[in-house]
């Protein structure tokens, strides 16, 4: 299984955002600390998801950057991604592991220690934990769990915990102290004028 980077960039396919432009800006300086997770809007077709995933994989491959696909595991396999990520309403982790195979990277969403431990037992390689803070990048999210919630999950599992939800570089030291291995971001890179600089600040905070 590929080593896991600490900064997870989730594609932002909302109107007015150019996820591929952001990725092109970030890739040259991010190195092995970057993981790219292809996430599309629920209304996107499988063909649209596949087309985006295939382009992301093509961009990531020369940099040896891990590429995952959110929710749509058949798209991950078809596009040549190294794995996927499943949320609470997607395939159960055990089923997702059977689909992807034993060598794939498989992330799972969790927000409390019990479900986190169950996901790891079922085959999750890492956990996306949150939302840490309130965020507007995804609808229908549960209440924020804050840094204490991240700490509770990190203490309950032995796999990497990736904090997600309104995370900025300023939050990283406290999250790392709480046991988070890394962070996943959307707006912190897609909503800024200089995503390369923002990524550098996040990676610097994550690796110091």
UniProtKB/TrEMBL annotation:
Its cofactor is Mg(2+). Binds 1 Mg(2+) ion per subunit. It catalyses: 2-[(2R,5Z)-2-carboxy-4-methylthiazol-5(2H)-ylidene]ethyl phosphate + 4-amino-2-methyl-5-(diphosphooxymethyl)pyrimidine + 2 H(+) = thiamine phosphate + CO2 + diphosphate; 4-methyl-5-(2-phosphooxyethyl)-thiazole + 4-amino-2-methyl-5-(diphosphooxymethyl)pyrimidine + H(+) = thiamine phosphate + diphosphate; 2-(2-carboxy-4-methylthiazol-5-yl)ethyl phosphate + 4-amino-2-methyl-5-(diphosphooxymethyl)pyrimidine + 2 H(+) = thiamine phosphate + CO2 + diphosphate. Mg(2+) binds at residues 71, 90. GO terms for biological process: thiamine biosynthetic process; thiamine diphosphate biosynthetic process. InterPro entries: Aldolase_TIM, ThiamineP_synth_sf, ThiamineP_synth_TenI, TMP_synthase. Gene3D superfamilies: Aldolase class I (3.20.20.70). Pfam families: TMP-TENI. Its EC number is 2.5.1.3. 4-amino-2-methyl-5-(diphosphooxymethyl)pyrimidine binds at residues 37-41, 70, 109, 138. Residues 7-189 form the Thiamine phosphate synthase/TenI domain. One of its GO terms (molecular function) is magnesium ion binding. One of its GO terms (cellular component) is cytoplasm. Pathway: Cofactor biosynthesis; thiamine diphosphate biosynthesis; thiamine phosphate from 4-amino-2-methyl-5-diphosphomethylpyrimidine and 4-methyl-5-(2-phosphoethyl)-thiazole: step 1/1. 2-[(2R,5Z)-2-carboxy-4-methylthiazol-5(2H)-ylidene]ethyl phosphate binds at residues 135-137, 166. Keywords: Magnesium, Metal-binding, Thiamine biosynthesis, Transferase. CDD domains: TMP_TenI. Belongs to the thiamine-phosphate synthase family. Condenses 4-methyl-5-(beta-hydroxyethyl)thiazole monophosphate (THZ-P) and 2-methyl-4-amino-5-hydroxymethyl pyrimidine pyrophosphate (HMP-PP) to form thiamine monophosphate (TMP). This is Thiamine-phosphate synthase.
């Amino acid at each position: 299984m590929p080593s896991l980077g600490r900064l997870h960039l989730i594609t932002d396919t909302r109107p007015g955002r150019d996820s591929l432009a952001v990725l092109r800006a970030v890739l040259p300086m991010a190195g092995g600390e970057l993981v790219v997770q292809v996430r599309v809007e629920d209304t996107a077709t499988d063909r649209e998801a596949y087309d985006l995933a295939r382009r992301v994989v093509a961009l990531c491959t020369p940099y040896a950057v891990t590429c995952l696909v959110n929710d749509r595991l058949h798209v991950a396999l078809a596009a040549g991604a190294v794995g996927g990520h499943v949320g609470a309403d997607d395939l159960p982790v055990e089923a997702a592991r059977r689909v992807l195979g034993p060598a794939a990277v498989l992330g799972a969403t969790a927000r409390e220690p019990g479900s986190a431990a169950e996901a790891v037992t079922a085959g999750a390689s890492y956990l996306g934990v949150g939302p840490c803070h309130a965020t507007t990048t995804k609808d229908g999210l549960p209440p924020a769990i804050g840094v204490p919630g991240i700490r509770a999950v990190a203490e309950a599992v032995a796999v990497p915990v990736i904090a997600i939800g309104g995370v900025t570089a300023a939050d990283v030291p406290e999250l790392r102290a709480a046991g988070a291995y890394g962070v996943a971001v959307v707006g912190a890179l897609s909503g800024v004028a200089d995503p390369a600089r923002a990524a550098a600040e996040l990676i610097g905070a994550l690796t110091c």
